[in-house]
Amino acid sequence: MPETQHTTGYSSKSAAPVDLNAYWLPFSGNRQFKQKPRIIVAAESCHYIDAVGRRVFDAMSGLWCCGFGHNRPEIAAAVQRQLLTLDYAPAFQFAHPQAFELASRLTGMTPTGLDHVFFTNSGSETVETALKMAKAYWRLKGQPQKQRLIGRAKGYHGANFGGTSVGGIEPNRAPYGELTAADHLPHTLLTENAFSRGLPERGAELADALETLVAQHGAEHIAAVIVEPFSGSAGVIVPPRGYLARLRTICDAHDILLIFDEVITGFGRTGHVFGANAFGVTPDILCIAKALTNGTVPMGAVVAATPIYDTFMGVDGPEYMVEFPHGYTYSGHPVACAAALAALDIFEREGLAARAAALAPYFENALHGLRGTKHITDIRNYGLAGALQIDCIPGEPVRRPFEIALKCWEKGLYVRWAGDTVQLGPPLISEKHQLDDAFSILSEVIASVA
User: Which of 271, 415, 274 is nearest to 357 (CA)?
Assistant: First the structure.
């Protein structure tokens, strides 16, 4: 095995130059990054501050998670108070008041019928929990053969075993072979819907592919279908008008659970509290994370419908026996709960879902104003989320988005590149003039890339 070349160069304020190879970055081209590191040292409101003091507009809300603005003092104060009161409490067989308070707060915000919260520490753990919950539910219902899981092509459901399996972004799955058996519905990215504003008009019938899988496997073998209200990581792939309602109807007809992964779409991104509200479709299980704490402390949650919870609580045996043998050391962590409660205070007090809805048309017009710029083959948007499809360099589909994103960073704008897309998800508190500046940079950069 060749010896790793160690590099140094970045020096923190409190230490000598560090070995850059000591840190293995996730979802990153480590070799390229370590040649010229992009180091973020501070954040404020809608901006990051890099190692040389440049202010960079955060057009991705971190990674879809800091939509309420960075470094909110209310959250910092709540975290400090909690750390000085109760830093940790065991989550197994014991609890603390903030966990109950947060769970009650969340069930007051979720669609009617989603009334029971199980805490996790990330979106990936949330999905994993939801999948295990769905499979265990059917076993408790006396239908242990209902075990098959169905995701969707181009869907993203985290990086753990189950989430990677039901996820439909092929480069995320290819390195590992089969992890957990899963089927995938076709994606809803249709060429005839290119440059749609908001919900595309064509393609609701793609939901009928679930009927094909039912015919293939038998409904008695299918536990759940998991989809994002819109696919974020694959490049803001918005469902055709009526698609999610059609999927709900098919799941109901065949007694299949419907899981919404709202790790990205939750807490205002769609202009509503949840994507379920935006699309008028209530799932059986709702997955949340990211903006739950405004990205400050890792946390996620599964919100389950009452019939699911009641099935677990109705098991035979002594009441002291564990009904759902699953959980994490840090489930419902006191500090994470404090951060989440403070974040939800901000979300509700400042009316951030409504604020996002009001800003969304301006964002949409600015985004679609890039139509006709070279290399752009499609533009998609919903709420305060948007993506530009970039024409590929033959044999290097990721290169051009990568170059665009890095040039934007150099000019003071952070956007995300993934596959052949450039993605935007600005903070819900963004001002119009900030969006103007961001799109001016983006337009200039895309026009300059070969």
Answer: 271
**Residue pointed to by tokens 């108070």:** 81
Query: What does the domain layout of the chain look like in residue ranges?
Result: 38-68+351-448, 76-349
Backbone angles phi, psi at 336, to 5 degrees: -65, -40
pLDDT tens column, 53-92:
999 999 999 999 999 999 999 999 999 999 999 999 999 9
Which pLDDT tens digit goes with each residue over 332-367?
999 999 999 999 999 999 999 999 999 999 999 999
Looking at domain 38-68+351-448, its CATH class is alpha beta
Residue type, 159: A
133: nearest Cα among 316, 331, 330, 312: 312
Q: How many residues does the chain have?
A: 450
Q: How high is the pLDDT of residue 5?
A: 46
Please tell me the distance from the alpha carbon of residue 222 to that of residue 257, in angstroms, as a whole number. 9
The answer to whether domain 76-349 has CATH 3.30.1330.30 is no
CA distance 448 to 423: 18
Provide the CB-side half-sphere exposure for 366 (13 A, CA): 24
- b/e for 285-313, b at 16 or more Cβ within 10 A? bbbbbbbbbbbbbbbbbbbbbeebbebbe
> pLDDT tens, 378-397?
999 999 999 999 999 999 98
Give, for 342, the enclosing helix (H) or strand (E): helix 334-349
- Phi-psi region for residue 271, left (φ > 0), alpha (ψ -120 to 50) or beta? left
Question: Given 3-state DSSP classes, what are the helix, strand and coil percentages for the chain, each rounded to the nearest 5?
Answer: 40, 20, 45
Give the integer Cα–Cα distance in Å for 443 and 124: 34
Distance CA 342, CA 325 (A): 30
Helix axes 334-349, 73-83, angle to 10 degrees: 150
Annotate 360-384 with b (16+ C-beta within 10 A) or e (fewer).
beebbebbbebeeeebbebbbbbbb
What residues contact residue 35 under an 8 Å CB cut-off, 6+ apart?
7
Are 257 and 284 spatial neighbours (Cβ–Cβ below 8 Å)? yes
